[in-house]
């Protein structure tokens, strides 16, 4: 008789303890993110795109440098799943290669630029004074520099596997406007009582910025990062279109779309696969951004 | 009764939205107002009092569905065309809003706005209307009305704006004036002025007034009949004396019992009403008050009780047990079982022997007043805090009171910031803050915590309660946070499972409890409270005040309690310091200062606070201060209060000279009571 009772009290105390064991912020956000249909769908879609881009070439008989001299401009067939280009290159292989580049460049550049915007804007807005003047000066300087020209001049340096530098340069010209918005919001957020409370508790300014300021701007930052993914991919595309950015023989979605656009009317496979995958990628990123914004904001109620 | 009612509202209901999500904001409000009568509508936030007023004025947004009947001078207003309504509004029915800044158009001159109100309804030439506008401004007590009529709203102070709005409201000699919390945004001395103007305006026009407020003190002194609202319905109606002295509805009793009283010195517990007002979207079954009611019986939950007459003719109450309850015999403390003090007050050593927890001496904070965008130049100095001296000893609560702009919040921030003040010294726990190493500063931060006014903005909305409470602990290097957080939550009357929720899942009172728990996390010795209860409803406020008192006794805390509500300070504080324009006007033990205030400003301040007791309130004599607080950028020479001081006007020419030339210091008035006045003398104002 006593045993079940003991078990019961044990269970009770376990329940009571479980009540206090609170999931960390990351776990809460992850739970809410995957709890929403959009979040799950977007994540699955992006994962599928990544899988396709990186695993696809492994199962394809062709590599992106191969040329099939028996088939120029051939429509999709068993041998060439997405058809071939005018040069005899396999469209599937080059599209996958281009996707790899564009995904990595787009996502990384967006994340780096949003992180830059958040940190620089928040520091400028929180400390004001000289920090603000210096950071605002840098921001304004980068705003007036002709980004495209500098990227074009620097393009020889991106050749030979220096794509991380390219990502960084892309990000460097994307963050300024957002950082100005972040700065303004930080200035008003700084007067809120919970920030004052943290200050009077002895929390260090850097920690206040990362623990209180930036999380409270997360809605803005997520939206910004989502938009930046498309912006980065498109900037890379337009750079590549003009022959800067990703250099041949390497390809990106941008170069593919640029080339394919010329032949799209009579050989649609040269254009539509690359364009379609770009659309799917951007769509997935937007869905994730939407779900993430809702997940980060405890005020938004999940629709049932 | 006297005459035919001018305004008859019957069975007024307002619903927002449709279907299951519909919000029934007002559910069957009926009242009459007769000429010259003042009807008070009281209730907590969300009780539907403002929505009712807007419905009467026909100012609700189109998504509101209004039913019932509103008859003004025999004409039905509900469903009337806009044109017809516009004819009534301003002429027969006018309104005074809470926020006088948004009630005036910022881009037009005040005089022109009043003239416009006149010209809409009467055939007047522009010159006639302008002349009448000046007369009206004069009537509401605005000095030099000719010049002031030419001013823009932003050049007016809050009190003057509200006067201008009242002038506009009475411009066309209306039959009914609806005042929606007309003094809530104003300081208490200005509130007294505005109420005085309102009374004068009513006398002048003979209009009926519907006064909507949450302040039971104002109702006691200003109103003839009162209507208590709860969850969108009137729950008790009657004359002020009937409702205050013979309440029949437990909610009214609870409301009256939960207000701290300016005139009651003893440190009894307040009587909070448990729980929170119901959300209008999810009302409980039966009587909406039944979940919070201490006298609840089975009948209460079955059906909502109708508003029925009780013994005296005009007195109605909506309670199944109204017959049994007679407020005269059953005081709220007995019905609500006032929480007992856990232990008798610990006997402290005499004040002089206790440690000084916070010593402030001659603290100064001046802000430069800058002009210009490119070439900034200093055009003046705002003397926000100009030599403030007080001390707070262990186990003591010091109330720092004053009107907005007196520098109390600046004083507080200077103390909390822990950096060297511009002049003067601040010593926290015996350490001078101007010479602190960073490790000492951290130690002081651990021992001195703060609770803020706004329970919403003082908690990070992106953090769970657990993280909020863990933050101070983590910052000061504590480990194993779970048990401590559980302990803190139970200390402030919350449940451990609340730790996983976010601040917006809580009501205002609960949020303030979380803020208090966070302040307690590091077991501090001194807590600085910045208006901790002023954003809360009366019934919730009482619970938080009780909690603060209990914690202080149990944990041996000292409080610096900054507030503008003098009644709350009397209840919670041991000593009180009254600030005026950056200086301490009077300081001393609460009983001494409240019962025999020496400084004319303290006297005026105390006499301006309404007491929720109709008989006392009618018998009191108000000391009305003239004008507004002078700008802290150019305070008057000598005594700062002399421009508004009633004593200054009464004394002779030779004595005045001293007030003009010499700034009075706080001089002892017996014991530790001190007042900064050359000619201070005691006066009973309660």
Automatic annotation (TrEMBL), chain A:
Keyword annotations from UniProtKB, A to Z: Cell inner membrane, Cell membrane, Membrane, Peptide transport, Protein transport, Transmembrane, Transmembrane helix, Transport
UniProt record similarity statement: Belongs to the binding-protein-dependent transport system permease family. OppBC subfamily.
Subcellular localization: Cell inner membrane; Cell membrane
InterPro entries named among the record's database cross-references: BP-dependent_transpt_permease, MetI-like, MetI-like_sf, OppC_N
Annotated ABC transmembrane type-1 domain residues: 103-289
Transmembrane segments: 41-59, 103-129, 141-159, 165-182, 269-292
Pfam families: BPD_transp_1, OppC_N
Protein name as catalogued: Oligopeptide transport system permease protein OppC
Biological processes, Gene Ontology terms: peptide transport; protein transport; transmembrane transport
Keyword Glycosyltransferase listed: no
Membrane topology note: Multi-pass membrane protein
Coiled-coil ranges from the UniProt annotation: none
GO cellular component, one term: plasma membrane
Principal location class: membrane
Automatic annotation (TrEMBL), chain B:
SUPFAM superfamilies assigned: P-loop containing nucleoside triphosphate hydrolases
GO biological process terms held by the UniProt record: peptide transport; transmembrane transport
GO molecular function per UniProt: ATP binding; ATP hydrolysis activity
SMART domains named in the record: AAA (SM00382)
Pfam family, one: ABC_tran
Domain ABC transporter: 7-256, 369-606
Keywords: ATP-binding, Nucleotide-binding, Transport
Family of this protein: Belongs to the ABC transporter superfamily.
NCBIfam families reported in the protein's UniProt record: oligo_HPY, PRK10419.1, PRK11308.1
Protein name as it appears in the record: Peptide/nickel transport system ATP-binding protein
The organism of origin for this protein: Sinosporangium album
């Amino acid at each position: 008789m006593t045993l079940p009772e003991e078990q019961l009290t044990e269970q009770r105390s376990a329940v009571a303890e479980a009540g206090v064991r609170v999931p960390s912020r990351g776990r809460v956000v992850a739970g809410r993110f995957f709890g929403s249909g959009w979040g799950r769908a977007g994540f699955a879609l992006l994962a599928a795109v990544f899988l396709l881009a990186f695993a696809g070439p492994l199962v394809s008989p062709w590599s992106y440098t191969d040329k099939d001299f028996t088939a120029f401009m051939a429509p999709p067939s068993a041998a060439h799943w997405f058809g071939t280009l005018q040069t005899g290159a396999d469209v599937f292989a080059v599209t996958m290669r281009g996707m790899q580049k564009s995904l990595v460049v787009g996502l990384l550049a967006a994340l780096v630029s949003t992180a830059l915007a958040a940190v620089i804007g928040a520091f400028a807005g929180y400390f004001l004074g000289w920090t603000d003047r210096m950071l605002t000066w840098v921001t304004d300087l980068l705003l007036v520099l002709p980004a495209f020209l500098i990227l074009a001049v620097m393009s020889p340096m991106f050749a030979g596997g220096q794509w991380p530098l390219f990502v960084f340069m892309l990000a460097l010209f994307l963050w300024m406007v957002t950082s100005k918005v972040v700065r303004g919001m930080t200035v008003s957020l700084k007067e809120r009582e919970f920030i004052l409370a943290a200050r009077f508790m002895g929390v260090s300014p850097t920690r206040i910025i990362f623990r209180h300021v930036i999380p409270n701007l997360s809605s803005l930052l997520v939206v910004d990062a989502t938009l930046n993914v498309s912006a980065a991919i498109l900037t890379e595309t337009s750079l590549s279109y003009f022959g800067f950015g990703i250099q041949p023989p390497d390809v990106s979605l941008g170069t593919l779309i640029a080339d394919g656009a010329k032949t799209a009317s009579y050989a649609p496979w040269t254009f539509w696969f690359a364009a379609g995958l770009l659309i799917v990628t951007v769509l997935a990123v937007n869905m994730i951004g939407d779900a993430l914004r809702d997940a980060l904001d405890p005020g938004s109620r999940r629709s049932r | 009764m006297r005459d035919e009612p001018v305004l008859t509202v019957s069975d007024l209901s307002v619903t927002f939205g449709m279907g299951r999500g519909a919000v029934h904001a007002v559910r069957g409000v009926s009242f009459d107002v007769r000429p010259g009568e003042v009807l008070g509508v009281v209730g907590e936030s969300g009780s539907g009092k403002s929505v009712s007023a807007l419905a009467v004025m026909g100012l609700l947004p189109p998504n509101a569905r209004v039913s019932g009947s509103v008859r003004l001078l025999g004409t039905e207003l509900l469903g009337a065309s806009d044109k017809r309504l516009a004819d009534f509004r301003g002429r027969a029915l006018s309104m005074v809003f809470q926020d006088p800044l948004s009630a005036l158009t910022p881009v037009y001159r005040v005089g022109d706005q009043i003239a416009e109100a006149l010209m809409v309804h009467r055939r007047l030439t522009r010159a006639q209307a302008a002349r009448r506008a000046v007369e009206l401004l004069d009537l509401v007590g605005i000095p030099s009305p000719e010049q002031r009529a030419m001013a823009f709203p932003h050049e007016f102070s809050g009190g003057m704006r509200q006067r201008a709005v009242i002038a506009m409201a009475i411009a066309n000699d209306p039959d009914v004036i609806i005042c929606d919390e007309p003094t809530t945004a104003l300081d208490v001395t200005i509130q007294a002025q505005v109420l005085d103007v309102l009374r004068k305006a009513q006398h002048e026009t003979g209009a009926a007034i519907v006064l909507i407020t949450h302040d039971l003190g104002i109702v006691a002194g200003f109103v003839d009949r009162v209507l208590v609202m709860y969850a969108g319905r009137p729950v008790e109606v009657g004359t002020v004396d009937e409702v205050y002295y013979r309440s029949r509805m437990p909610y009214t009793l609870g409301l009256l019992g939960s207000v701290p009283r300016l005139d009651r010195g003893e440190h009894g517990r307040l009587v909070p009403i448990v729980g929170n007002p119901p959300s209008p979207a999810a009302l409980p079954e039966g009587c909406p008050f039944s979940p919070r009611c201490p006298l609840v019986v089975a009948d209460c939950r079955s059906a909502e009780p109708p508003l029925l007459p009780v013994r005296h003719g005009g007195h109605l109450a909506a309670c199944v047990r109204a017959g049994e309850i007679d407020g005269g015999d059953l005081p709220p403390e007995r019905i609500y079982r006032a929480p007992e003090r856990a232990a008798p007050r610990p006997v402290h050593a005499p004040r002089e022997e206790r440690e000084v927890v916070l010593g402030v001496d001659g603290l100064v904070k001046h802000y430069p007043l800058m002009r210009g965008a490119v070439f900034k130049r200093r055009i003046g100095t705002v003397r926000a805090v100009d030599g403030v001296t007080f001390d707070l000893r262990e186990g003591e609560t010091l109330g720092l009171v004053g009107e907005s702009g007196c520098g109390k919040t600046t004083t507080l921030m200077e103390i909390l910031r822990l950096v060297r003040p511009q002049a003067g010294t601040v010593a926290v726990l015996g350490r001078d803050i101007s010479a602190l190493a960073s490790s000492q500063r951290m130690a002081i931060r651990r021992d001195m915590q703060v609770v803020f006014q706004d329970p919403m903005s003082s908690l990070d909305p992106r953090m769970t309660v657990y993280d909020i409470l863990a933050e101070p602990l983590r910052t000061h290097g504590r480990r194993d946070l779970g048990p401590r957080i559980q302990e803190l939550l139970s200390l402030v009357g919350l449940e451990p499972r609340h730790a996983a929720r976010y601040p917006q899942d809580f009501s205002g009172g609960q949020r303030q409890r979380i803020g208090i728990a966070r302040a307690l996390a590091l077991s501090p010795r001194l807590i600085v409270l910045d208006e901790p209860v002023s954003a809360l409803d009366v019934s919730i406020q009482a619970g938080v005040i009780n909690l603060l008192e209990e914690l202080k006794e149990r944990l041996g805390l000292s409080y610096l309690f900054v507030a503008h509500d003098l009644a709350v300070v009397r209840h919670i504080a041991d000593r009180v310091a009254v600030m005026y324009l950056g200086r301490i006007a009077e300081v001393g033990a609460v009983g001494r200062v409240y019962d025999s205030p020496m400084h004319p400003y303290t006297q005026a301040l105390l006499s301006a606070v309404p007491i929720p007791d109709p008989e006392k309130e009618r018998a009191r004599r108000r000391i009305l201060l003239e004008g507004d607080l002078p700008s802290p950028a150019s305070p008057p020479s000598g005594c700062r209060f002399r421009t508004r001081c009633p004593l200054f006007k009464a004394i002779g020419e030779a004595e005045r000279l001293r007030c003009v030339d010499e700034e009075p210091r706080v001089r002892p008035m017996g014991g530790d009571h001190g007042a900064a006045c050359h000619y201070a003398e005691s006066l009973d104002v309660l």
